[in-house]
């Protein structure tokens, strides 16, 4: 069962990191406004897709999970 405990710790750290991102997201000016993020604004339509931000967050989470699996 030690594997279950380690999984819970990793899950808790991931949830804490997501909470920190949401809490500090407004204080980090570049988060969500990177050059690769797609933003289209028309008269009655706005489309926003944070592509570059999503890729960076995915890479960071993959690196963190890889580090804990070693």
From TrEMBL:
InterPro entries reported in the protein's UniProt record: DUF2905
Keywords: Membrane, Transmembrane, Transmembrane helix
TM stretches of this protein: 7-25, 45-68
Pfam annotation, one family: DUF2905
Organism field: Geomonas terrae
Protein's name in the database: DUF2905 domain-containing protein
Coiled-coil segments: none
